[in-house]
# Entry
Amino acid sequence: MNPETPTLWEKIQTTGLGTYIAESTWAFPTLETLHVIFLVSVLGTIFVVDLRMLGWTSNKFAVTAIAKDTLPWTWGAFVGAAITGGLLWISKAPDYMGNPYFLLKMATMALAGLNMMYFHFMTWRTVEHWDRDASMPVAVKVAAALSIILWLAVVFFGRAIGFTLGIFGS
Amino acid sequence: MGDLLYAFTEWLRTTQMTEFSLWLSDTSWSMWLDTHFWAIPIMQCIHILAISAAFGSILMVNLRIYRLAGTDRTMAETERRYTRWIWWSLLVLLISGIGMTIAEPVRELVNPVFWVKMPLVVVAVLVSLWFHRRVMRRLAAGGTAGPVIKTAALLIIVLWCVIMLCGRWIAYAPV
# Structure
C-alpha cells in the first residue's frame, strides 16, 4: 500500500474533533476523568448483581429486584463510558488500533456482552424458579463468575493501554 | 488554576517532602516496584476495583435513601449489606494508594493535586463516619430522611467524584 495514503484511523485522528481533543490541554484528561467515574459506576453496580447471582450477598432478596435497582444505573454509566471512551479513541485512533491491549480490551468487552446476552435470553427465562433462592443454579453462578472475571480483565487491559500506548506501531 | 498549581508545586519543592520522596525512591521497596513493569498498573487496577466497590456501595445506599433503589429492603438491611464493603474497600484503597506512593514518591508527594486529594479523602472518611454512625443508625431505627440528610447523601457522591477527578489529574499535574 502507498505509505502516503492515510489509513482510516489516521483520517479519524485528523478530523476537527480528533485534533481538538489531542491538542487541548484539558480535553483528554477531563474525558479520562469522566471515563473513570463512569466505569467505576458500571463495575460497582454490576458486581452488586454478580455477587447476588453467586449467592454471596443479599440472599434474602429477589434477583429481579436487585437487577431492577442497579441496571438503569449500569446502562446509563456504560453509555457515558462508551461516549467518553470513543472520544478518547478518536484523538489517537491509529495508536489505539495498533495497541494489543486496546484490542484485547475490546475483545474482552465483546465476550462480556455475549455472556450477558446468553444469560439474558437463555438463563433468565427460568428466573421465576430461582429468583428468591439463596443458592443459584449453576448456569447463573457461571454467568456471574464470567462477568466478574471478564470485567476485571477489561480494567487490567484498559490500564495497560495507558502504559504501552507509545510502544507499539506508528 | 494552572498558575495556582504551579505555585503550589514550587512551594512543595522547598519543603522536606522533596528530600523525603527522594529518600523513599532510594529504598529497596520503591526500586523493586519501579523496576517491575507491571507492578504499578496492577496496583492501579486494585485501586480502581476498590473505588468501584466503595462507590457502588455508597451509590446503592444513597439511592435507597432517595427511594430510587432497594425499596424492597429496610434501611437497616441496606446498611448491613453495604457498609462493610465501603470500609473494607477504603482499606484496600489506602493500602494500594500507599503502594503507588512508594513506587513513585516524587510523582505523588511533590504533586499539588495529590495534596488537594488527601484532605478531601480525610473529609470524605469523616463525613462517612458521621453518616454511618449517626444518620444511617437513626434511619435504620425507623427515622425518615429529611432534606438535610438527602443533601448530605448527594454531597458525598459529589465529593467522591471530585476525589476521583483529583486521582486522575495527579498524572497531569506540573511536577
Residues 17 and 142 of chain A are 42 Å apart (CA to CA). The radius of gyration of chain A is 19 Å. Chain A touches chain B through 29 residues (CB under 8 Å).
